[in-house]
Amino acid sequence: MGWFSNLLGGEAVVPTPVRTLQDYKTHVLDADGPVILNVWNETCPPCRKLKPVLQKVATRYQGRVQVVEVSAAAERPLLAALGVRSTPTLIMFDAGDEIGRMTGFRPPGWFDQMIATEFSKA
What we know:
single chain, Glutaredoxin, 5-stranded mixed β-sheet, about 40% helix, globular
């Protein structure tokens, strides 16, 4: 579904779940373009607050920026590879390279500014 359909109330895009090291390699490290990876925990209030924001980001930037999510309940080797110590943690990648990391809730405007600044091709 394109951006015009989404603008008119079409179906929202859901962030891609990443559960294993292979998923991580496929959806993040081997990605050609920008990726926002969210590590979350279902018992974390800021994580729950961030969920609809990331859904809007995934919908708005569909085809330009991929949004993926990793649950804190994912396989241990994946969590160890990410080196995350708290949730929510947002890790930004461009063409498979980590370019930034933030913890805590971020409002929608922060994502728009970050994407415009860090992902100039998006």
